[in-house]
Amino acid sequence: PLLWRGAPGLSGAPGLSPSPPLTCVSSCFTGAAGCVATLLHDAAMNPVEVVKQRMQMYNSPYQRVTDCVRAVWRNEGAGAFYRSYTTQLTMNIPFQAIHFMTYEFLQEQLNPQRQYNPGSHVVSGACAGAVAAAATTPLDVCKTLLNTQESLALNSNISGHITGMANAFRTVYRVGGVTAYFRGVQARVIYQMPSTAIAWSVYEFFKYILTKRQEERRAGK
Q1: pTM
Q2: Solcar repeat ranges (predicted)?
Q3: Is 68 helix (H, G, I), strand (E, B) or coil?
Q4: How many CB atoms lie within 10 A of CB 205?
Q5: Segment 99-136, tens digit of pLDDT
Q6: Within a 13 Å sphere around the CA of 200, how many CA atoms are in the beta-carbon half?
């Protein structure tokens, strides 16, 4: 498979040829592919996120997923499943940008030779996830509010419904001030650190194995 240095987690394997440099054209195609992937992924997963968060709410009236889906559809319409879609995209794009940039920066510091080094991949992945999670917590708070439509926030909202990121930002500030934007930041960071550390470690491991086998097949010809 085609590998390029600027792609996520592309560290060289011991004894293997280095990856070709990332060109401007390939960088643009990679960015476009990432944007399209995020659009499709969030379009499919946003309704699932809405249902999950409503069932996780304290004193949630829903016992089953089907009950939650039917209630949301009946009371708020299909649009409720995508009320936070734009916010989700607004959050995911900077999250992934910060995530990958931080990982690549840390790899340059901890593993400049870009060899397969599980320790550096775990540390870089965990730190990258922590930085990205902390930086995008305000967007995550607004997304959760849009998905759950919490009664406390609704009581402070004149329209009775919270729609759109701008409305959510104003409502969060009205309810809890500036500190409300970072409510749950520690839990979010703690959640993301092992998640991104495992993801990068698994990615780097399989990339190393597959690349090594590819090199061995080429050498055997």
Answers
A1: 0.66
A2: 25-109, 116-209
A3: helix
A4: 13
A5: 888 888 898 889 888 889 999 999 999 999 999 999 99
A6: 32
